[in-house]
Specification:
671 residues, mainly alpha, 3 domains, elongated, transmembrane helix, DUF4220, DUF594
Length: 671
Amino acid sequence: MWREWNLRVAVLISLFFQVLLIFIAPSRKNTKNRIVTLLVWGAYLLADWIAVLSVGLICSGQGNDCDEYCVKDDLAAFWAPFLLLHLGGPDTITAFSLEDNELWLRHLLGLFIQLAAVVYAFWQSVPNQFQIPTIFMFFAGTIKYAERTRALYLACFGNLKHSMLPTYALLIKEVKLMLDNIPFGIANGKELETWDEESLTPNPLTDIDVVKNGYMFFQIIKRLIVFLTFTFPERHKSRKIFLEMTCKDAFRVMEMELNFMYDALYTKMVVVQRKIGYAFRFICSVLIVVSFALFASHHKHQLQPLDIVVTYTLLIGAVGLDFVSLVKLIFSNYTIVSLNNSNAEEIVFAIKERLSFGERCQRSNFVSQHSLISDCIINEQFKWFERVVDFFGLKDFFDEIQYKRNSPLTDDLKEFIFMEIKNKALQAEDPEYSKEICSAKGNWVLSQYDCLHPSIVNSVKREVEYDHTLLIWHVATDICYHKNEYSDEEKNSQNREFCKILSDYMLYLIVMQPAMMSEVEGIAQIRIQHTYKKAKKVLKSHMNVKPPNIFENFKKFFQSRQSELMLERIVACQILGLECNVAECGCKSVLFEGCNLAKELNKLGSERRWEIMSRVWVELLSYAATHCGGLAHAQQLNKGGEFITFVWLLMAHFGLTERLPIGSCMVGTTH
């Protein structure tokens, strides 16, 4: 019975995965939900597997004797090209991760193998009563599969970097223009200050302006993904425009840049939005519709009724998926960018918003949070459960469920970060000075304040490793935040809340996104484990920790305990602030240094304390943003993205990068 049904079931399952992917794949760019990611990952892998299996079933069944319930060879050969369409995949996903783009050669080989298999199946069925529609569908499937392979090739790291490398002639031309049009002081690293006022971005930006500016800046920031840097004109243009923008508009433009970046790295848009892409898409659509019409007009009295239903399902699915892809392509941001008619732009944008298919991105509205002290409390209560999930290799997955929480990212916090970085940018017209600012990890901020205790200043010295500084300030922030003698005014302090959100966010990145933070994390994982042990030791001796009850804790694991955990966390922080000493913590431990830092910070006036701490946290965030490679930021786009990526883009647009713009060395040596 399975032999009679396997092919029919396989081709329908293959179609189901295509429908699933075209609608759910875009959702992964604006959610960090692990269930959504798991669903997309499973559908992405199974879609290719079931399509290849189906082609194999067709080839193995051709020419074999079978009973009346088997699929006829003519019809099976007609089904085979549909699987090429499925292997081409929807426009909404070509790669699940960046690493998939590096496998474009394997996909190219797969293209040739599957084409050969489909041709073989067709050859075995000759003479075939569905010969013409089969040939038309074959060419349509070939186009779709080739589009996917081409998209993977264009998004691979080597090709991306090669396509953006400036030619020697271009560099010479740029330097010549700079020397001809700027005062001679440019030779000492000064930047061009002339600017066409008409080219400044209007303020505030309309939705159309956001799309067009997002695309313009995407063409520039692509360089950062492959470890290149801006040219002088690009840095100048980007810096000027962003200095004129409001915080709200800047984040909207950066959101759009990330949309374009996601499309270029994970979808077919970079292939199909070109003129030749539109031409092939039109040809493909015509071929599919003509195949449908030819099959519908053909005599089918020799076919099983069930097979006719399956064939029409495949045809309707092909037409429907192609129609959805075509509509999404026509009413896309790329179309808006290519139009020069304001009325047409408004119409396309309005329709695009209505047909967004859940693709509206809100990457910058939430940040993940993780607290070292909360981790200590929960870890002690669920130690038994951790051993079980660790045995099955699921520890990281359940750690996110247990320890991670989301906090809304308010407009006030965005504005605060934006203004902090903007104020630095205004002082960093010289690229060399901007490099110095980027290397600061709290010391630049503290240098602006007098009479600070040496332990505060020493915690951010250049010699101290970044992860060490971050952990010290995280412990200190938790203790200061949960201090029990705050006035109502201080409890409502914005800077106090900013510190807590940024502190927990940075620890989340270090603990749960180590791959992204690999450039700055040092031996953070070792330090964190050591600090956990020290904190647990102190807390156990001063808190009433009951022996764990396995059934009670299993029940608690699946219940919301936010209020209870918050109370325990406050008590824990107050204990650490009062009881942590050299004997228990060790004079060289992060925990002791954090507690000592908290004591010195608490001696400052309330307003001054939280102002200093919030500015230090922005500088620590900025340091991590610029020192994480562009590739690390790009790898997060398919998982909902990270807020630190916005900070990375913002600093780049303000000209705050460690690498000097292209041409600076050449110009700097001209005298």
